[in-house]
Amino acid sequence: RGASTNELKSAELFLSQSAGGSFMFRHRVCDHILATRHSTAVRDPDRRFLVDIDLSGFGAPWDEFMRNGALLREECCDQDDSRYHFGQVVFLSRLQERRHFFSTDYFRARYETTARDNLRRVLADLRSKGYGTTAPKTFPNRLPALLRARGSDLEVLDLESLPGADLRAAEAEL
Fold first, then answer.
1. DSSP letter at 61?
2. DSSP 158
3. What is the pTM of this model?
4. Which end of the chain has fewer beta carbons closer than 10 Å to its terminal beta carbon, N or C?
5. Percent of the chain with pLDDT over 90
6. Binning pLDDT at 50, 70 and 90, where does residue 102 land?
7. Spacing of C-alpha 72 from chain mean position
C-alpha cells in the first residue's frame, strides 16, 4: 500500500483526461481504480481480478516482496515510522483475516500460499518491533470513496475528507 490518496488521485486524473467520454465507461474505470483501495469487499468479477493484480506482489518471493515494500515506504516518506507501520499492520491484518487472500481462483492457485507466508512473516516482524500495538493519535480510518454523478459528469467523493455531518449527507445520497 502506498499513499492513502493514490487511488483518489488516479481516479481524478482519469476523469480529467477522459472528459467528454462515455459516462458509463468513465464510471466503470473509476470503480475499478477505487476498488484497489481495498476498503470494501469486491463482488464484480472484473474488479476482483483487478484487485488480485494489485495484491499480486504479496505472492512474490520474500526478497522481492521486501523490495516492493521498501518502494511503498518511499511513497509515504512524509509519514513517520510509527504512523506508517501502524497503518501497515492495520491493513495487513485485515488481509490476513480474509478467508482467501485472493478473490479469484487464478491468483489463489498461483500465489495464495506464498502471499499468506509473506503476510505472516512481515506482520510478525512489525509486531516484534512494537508496531501495531498503539494507534498514532492522527491515524485516520480508511473509508471508501464514492463516485457521484454531477450533471452529465462524474466526481470522486473522498469520504475520509468529509466532516461527520457531510458524511451522513453523502450516505443519504446512496
1. -
2. E
3. 0.70
4. C
5. 33
6. very high
7. 12
